[in-house]
């Protein structure tokens, strides 16, 4: 009897250690994927800068540099997608701050942008927050199979959550479409509501693919294709509202607010759909949420005032210089004899030479 007990303990310990290795691999995929995304963003930015300095600008999609950045972007997103198949949602989603800090560091190294004190502080906090997230995130040990997804999909928690999300989404969409309210909070809340469905479906699809590779194929279950359709549809509409936000507001405002809303919605989705905080200790949860707070603070520190540093100064407006008057007409009139007027309205031809 004692031998069976200790044998079971050894098997359980081996399983937990195996799942911990899975989680670590998922964390590495998420970190590397976010860093690759930051590299791709700077490569695409470099391509746009090259095009702006050419005498005859050409479309960005004809640049090999831009396409190299787009390819790296796809690889980084693929790494993030695969990370959801190995690690919990509440662990992968907050690590998105690594792409923000990585982009700031790479822009300083290769695009010769200014390194500010807030950038150094943000990078330090990013490493501290990531350490807390990795060590205190819920360490659940469950394989995402098709039957598991089906069980969660029809659970009462998820059904109530989806109904509330649909109601909030419809109310915000009414104010956005009918009332013309395009505040950044409304737009990014719409993005966050869609992002929660995206995270749930991405975790399900990636988890079922991982389960198919390591154990038994799950691609014959209808739930796999249902989740795949939800993933594509939510991504498309999420990008639509996010693009609208970037058109109306500068990137330095959209990036941190979107990261905060997206991470919050992803954590809520992971808690409700996948029960990722089930049995977690209060202290571990408190330290985990403090790590999330640090990741939010990082995005605000790194993006703060960065947009203003890149505003083009192509001309000097004389009207903004104290003590200077703007000339009403400084070009000669081709149809008349006068050669322009002075600021007081008198004709320049009447004044002595």
UniProtKB/TrEMBL annotation:
Compartments, record wording: Membrane
Keyword Nucleus tagged: no
Entry GO CC: membrane
Membrane topology: Multi-pass membrane protein
Top-level taxonomic group: Eukaryota
GO molecular function ontology, one term from the record: magnesium ion transmembrane transporter activity
Region named Disordered: 328-353
Keywords: Membrane, Transmembrane, Transmembrane helix
Parts of the chain that traverse the membrane: 22-43, 64-86, 92-111, 120-138, 158-176, 183-202, 222-242, 254-274, 280-302
Family: Belongs to the NIPA family.
PANTHER family per record: NIPA-LIKE PROTEIN 2, PTHR12570
UniProt-recorded name of the protein: NIPA-like protein 2
Organism: Cnephaeus nilssonii
Taxonomic lineage of the native organism: Eukaryota, Metazoa, Chordata, Craniata, Vertebrata
